[in-house]
Structures are given as structure tokens and as C-alpha cells.
Amino acid sequence: METATQTKILVVDDDDHFRETLSDAMSLKDCSVTGAVSAKDAFSSLSTTKPSVILLDVQLPDANGVDLCRKIKADKRYQGVPVVLLSAKFTEPADRAEGLLEGADAYLSKPVQLDSLWEEIRYLLDRPS
After folding, report:
1. How many CB atoms neighbour CB 19 within 10 A?
2. Residue 117 is part of which domain span?
3. For 7-30, how does the pLDDT look when each residue is reduced to its tens digit (9 = 90+)?
4. At 68, which CATH number?
5. Contact criterion met (CB below 8 Å) for 6 and 31
């Protein structure tokens, strides 16, 4: 089980305000947050650090977040890293089911409640491997 001070969060979202808000909120929980604006940026970040959890927008400028989730989960280095998909547009049960079937550990709708997001992150990090 990780402690909050060890938690490294990778936020992959092209919305600068959303990334900054999440970064500010998670820093209050003693988490370190790295931001990426695209799938390309996400892979660049993943090549240099292994996050504790990845928060991944479904709609990125250069990729579908569900496809990106599948690619991340297919890489042995990141199979154990929880991925939380986030979407403002794709919020139907079928969208959630697709995301979860492609390897996401959770699928949350935007706007996301920060307390609920933190509870989900803690749950994912505290569960047995």
C-alpha cells in the first residue's frame, strides 16, 4: 500500500484549466502531479517515470483515450498502474462498459467531484495487486 506522499499522478488532458485544478487539488493531498496534453506527451512522460495512477481524458487531440488506455495496459511496465478514464461527452453506460473492457480501472464523468476522484484513487491504490 502506498502512502499519499509517494503517490505520483499522471493527468492526460488537453484542458489546461482542468489539469491545473487537479494538480492543485492533488498537491493538497501530498501527491506529485505530472500533466500531459496529448497521447504523445503521455508516452513521453511514461518513458521517464512510472506513475502510481493515470487520469486519462477520453477525448484527446491526437488519440482516443480508450485506445490509449488499451496501449498502456498492453505494456508490461504499466499493467499494474491503475487508469481512470474521464469524459464529459462519453458518459453513457455503453461508453463506460467499453472503457472498462479495454482495461480502465474506473470511468468517471466530468465534471468530476474532487473528493470522489480522490476516494477512487485511494481505493485503486489500496486494493490488493
Report:
1. 20
2. 4-126
3. 999 999 999 999 999 999 999 998
4. 3.40.50.2300
5. no
